[in-house]
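Whiteboard transcription, Tuesday session. T.W. wrote the structure tokens on the left side:
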């Protein structure tokens, strides 16, 4: 989960997303959304909390990447 924090900080500060793969972040965001959904369906708070945090962090990066 903490591996996304430095990347988010760098992207927010510099607005430089050239080195980031759009496809990889689309898959990452989708994966975290699915794991969060799975956690919700099973009412497993550790799965929900960690994956929703990762989802939000990776979504910030993806939105910055897709923004013109």
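and on the right, the sequence the group agreed on:
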């Amino acid at each position: 989960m903490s591996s996304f924090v430095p990347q988010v900080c760098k992207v927010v500060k510099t607005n430089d997303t050239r080195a980031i793969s759009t496809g990889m972040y689309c898959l990452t965001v989708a994966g975290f959304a699915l794991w969060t959904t799975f956690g919700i369906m099973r009412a497993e708070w550790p799965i929900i909390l960690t994956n929703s945090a990762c989802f939000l962090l990776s979504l910030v990066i993806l939105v910055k990447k897709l923004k013109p």
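Someone added at the bottom: The mean pLDDT is 94.
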